[in-house]
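ok trying this again, last paste got cut off
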Amino acid sequence: MATVKFEEKSPYQQEKRTEDHTDFKYKNYLEHSGLRAIHAINILSYPKFRLAYIVDADPERLRKIKEEFGLTNTVLLSPEEQDKVFNDSKVDGIIIATPTFTHESIVTKGLKAGKAVFCEKPISQNEGGTQRCYEVAKQVEKPLFCAFNRRYEPSFREVFNQVREGKVGRVHLIKTVSRDSPLPPIEYIKIAVSFRKSGALNDYDTVAITLLFPSGTIGMIDLSRNAIYGYDQRLEVFGPGGMVSASNEAPMQVTYSGLSSQSHPPIYHSFPSRYQEGYREELRNFHGIMEGEE
């Protein structure tokens, strides 16, 4: 987190930044129960799905979810009871939003039980595990959907479509910026897949990557874990025919103009609000795949 190389105070020892009052989508996310709630809300709002089970290790969180969403027809289970889900012939698909180190085993179990599987990225902690999961999916002829919500975000999707239409010509350069906000909890860092391989908790976490593709196209990725001004998400594609880009977005388009200054709401605080529509669209796409429409 830019503490060793730049000789700065650890961001975990600095004042924590909170979301701006204008980010109503993020406030709604906080009122529920994290990523699990994002998927639960989307399932409940999509008429072609029925939420049959929720499996969670935290009994209090299960109670809260049941109360918040009025889940009278949804069975709540602990991880020790998960076999009930896999053995239920009425279950067509499962959604996995658990810690990364659990993904491979749950994915494999779900596929072998004959279920379509939607799994938050990554599928596994390593390439070999990911390949094994897709081999199982091929063997049992069931879809394994890796959830990349950015692919379904409307503005990023429009960039993709315009490039495919040839608007920029042959692609020379692709640039992305992905700077996280807010700083992840220290508990998350402890269980993150990269923690076991990192040198130290106080090592800096700002990275720039340059890629050269066989076509000659150059890729540039700019990453950080600690953008204090908001969730910085940008995409740019450049070629001889021009450039197409997606910029940061704000929850409200309200501007104050005064005698000597002008102000507007900051960009989205974090991923639940910035990519809300992306989460919805990926779930719809998963349903289409299950139905053989995609």
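PB: full thing came through this time. Residues 209 and 221 are 5 Å apart (CA to CA).
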